[in-house]
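explain this:
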Amino acid sequence: MEPLLHQLGQRLIRCAHRTLICRKYTHGNGNGADHPSTGSSHTTPVLLVSRLYQPANLREVGQESRQAGEMTCKSQRLMQQAGLIHPSNPGCYYYLPATVRAMEKLVRLIDQEMQGIGGQKLDMPSLCSAELWRSSERWDLMGKELFRLQDRHGVDYCLGPTHEEAVTTLVAHQASLSYRQLPILLYQITRKFRDEPKPRFGLLRGREFYMKDMYSFDVSEEAARHTYDSVCQAYGRLFSRLGLRCLRVQADAGNIGGTLSHEFQLPADIGEDRLLVCGGCSFAANEETLAPGETDCPRCPAGPLAESKGIEVGHTFYLGAKYSRVFNATFSNHQNRPVVSEMGCYGLGVTRILAAAVEVMSTEEAIRWPGLLAPYQVCVVPPKKGSKGSEEGAAQTEGLVHALQGGLPRLRGEVVLDDRTQMTIGRRLKDAVRLGYPYVVVVGQGAQEETPRFEVICQQTDETMFLSKDQLVDLLGRVETV
């Protein structure tokens, strides 16, 4: 009888411990902050799948929508299916929590690259004066693409699709600007608005979206072209860090203006831009910049240019004095005389990069993220409640999650626990695979062995491994986060 009572007592102690842990996880705020009742600066609540707000619940979105022609690309279908975005008005979407996490990571990467070349971040008003746009003659040039409105006094405004006028006016107000202070590179990451006639492809072509726009002010054309090249190189590094193959192609300046322009394109069948690429050198161009029917590379005799399609995710422009002359954005040269600045502008489609990455990296049934942008890095799937070995598996799960959260600082806030233990492992595993966690760790039968082993699915490489806890911690310790 005494051994039985002792065994029962130990079981009750373990159950009470797990209950406390579960309560701590459940009442955490989900963002990696300390649990408010503990007062400890070392406790990081575990994120629970049951508490994550993803209302689509991975249902098969839209047989009806597909028949109606609304679901026209893979990224739109997968992102709605996974509860990452939800349609609001035509061309406008709710960005749900997991998408916001991915976007914030992308913003941090962009900040690193832009500030690495001297960029300074600011924030400009979305409500832009029509007077400025009339001064640059773009109020009429942009036509119906502008969202226009009037205030109660009858004054005209637009919702900014881009901010050349606003930033040039800002710099022009600094009367004491010296050549010693140039180049100046000012950028923002904010919502933009364009009245697309036919918004489609989810986040790839909408009416409201996030964009990074940077503007440079230099002392001369030579200096401005040097800045232009440094920004293009920073874009190249950004896409390399994301693991995305991106082409820099010769492009038309359009209604932005200037004498030099390049687009950054992700090759994709869904792309709306037609590209011509040389296989013998680095030449690539948007079809609209070449003469009709031109098929030979203008740089080398390697042969005909190959056609492909692309999704534009970035655009750079050398503007010269197009805006600085209009708004009198000058600086004092070394002879203390006023000189008009030479300008450039540089855009990145933030939400478009997210959607384009999903488009080009995912399978038809499952999202695949660039590793640095995945909303969460690791999903741990414990045994089904009541299954054989579930109690021991739950204990192994607790130890594993604490080892990852406590021993790997970079993974704090990056590990989620699929606590929906009323569901089978297979059902939860299917959800995890479709959501695209880079690493899925299954606490199955192997966790009951003398040396517990965990099934580890590395989704970006399609590898499955069976690792001890120490091996798993070593593997995940090498994961890069931002």
